[in-house]
Amino acid sequence: MVRGIKNITPNIDVTNWNNSIQLFNGTTLESLITERYKYDIGIYSYISSLNARCYIPNIAMSEVPKIYPEDSYYQRWQKKQEVLQGAVDLQIFYWNMATENGLNLGVFKLPYYGGFHTENLLIELITNQNEGLAIDNDSILKARCLTQLHNNDYINIFGMAEYQLDILSKTPILTQPKNFGVTIGNTPTLVRPSNINRYRLHLQNVGSVGVWFCHGDISNCVPYQCLYLPPNAGWDDELKSTASIYAITEDSVTNIVGLEPTINW
């Protein structure tokens, strides 16, 4: 299991007010696990706090509503509407990467009370401070200002996203070894392509001349500068390298045969 938090800290002002601003990206969580294909992963994430710190002096100033802790969501909403003079509309929405569709969660009115003030966006979204806003691993939470901002207008969004990845290892399956044979001459020749799931590699020189071979880039395949396999000799890759294998002779032709089993998840 992997658990963690990500801070939400975007700023909206005159330079980006009409852009879609990313708040939290649930599609990136799987990238926290290396060799993802080896595991079954369950992903759970939610926004546990989301606020907008506002300073919007270019709209009409509103009176501060008389809101009390015991007020319900609807009482808070009514009191805000009664004193609201001007406001900037801020939209919060999901964007699903799998379907390329958006889901509007709400449009919030951010007033100006004569200075900086903070709006709790999460309580407006779900009407209850004891809950969080869940996000699946195909979705991105975004914000977009629907009202033009001007110089000295600022909306600083801050909050926290919590996530948990439940990881279960898959049972690997060992395939039947793949046999191969390659004729090698005095130019670098590909013996085996790279294979990230390679379990083992065995090479045997069945020709009458020696051969040099290397892992990785073809430029490393140079006689007397890489590994040497004499005639009628075999070699097992104890390093379990997944890189490509190239081979070359000095001035003649030989044959390399081998086998390569693979693990699949």
Written overview of the protein:
This protein is mostly beta strands. The protein is about 5% helix and about 45% strand. The chain is built from 2 helices and 20 strands. The chain has helices at about 75-85, 120-125; strands spanning about 1-10, 10, 20-25, 40-55, 90-95, 100-110, 115-120, 135, 140-145, 155-170, 175, 180-185, 190, 200-205, 210-215, 225-230, 235, 245-250, 255-260, 265. The strands form 5 sheets. Strands 1, 2, 4, 7, 8 and 10 form a 6-stranded antiparallel beta sheet that branches. A 4-stranded antiparallel beta sheet has the order 3-9-5-6. Strands 12-19-14-17 form a 4-stranded antiparallel beta sheet, with no helix packed on it. The mean pLDDT is about 90.
Task: Describe the secondary structure blueprint for this structure.
Elements: E1 2-8, E2 11-12, E3 20-25, E4 39-55, H1 73-83, E5 88-96, E6 101-110, E7 117-120, H2 121-126, E8 133-135, E9 139-145, E10 154-169, E11 173-174, E12 178-184, E13 189-192, E14 202-205, E15 211-215, E16 227-229, E17 234-236, E18 245-248, E19 254-260, E20 263-264
Antiparallel strand pairs: 1-10, 2-10, 3-9, 4-7, 4-8, 4-10, 5-6, 5-9, 11-20, 12-19, 13-18, 14-17, 14-19, 15-16, 15-18
The chain-level mean pLDDT equals 90
Count of individual beta strands: 20
Distance between the termini: 20 Å
Number of helices: 2
Q: Using the CA coordinates, give the radius of gyration.
A: 31 Å
Which percent band covers the strand fraction? over 45%
Largest β sheet strand count, sense and barrel closure: 6 strands, antiparallel
Order of helices and strands: EEEEHEEEHEEEEEEEEEEEEE
Helix fraction bin: under 10%
Q: Using the alpha-carbon principal axes, give the shape.
A: elongated
Model regions low in confidence, pLDDT < 50 over at least 5 residues: none
The helix/strand class is mainly beta
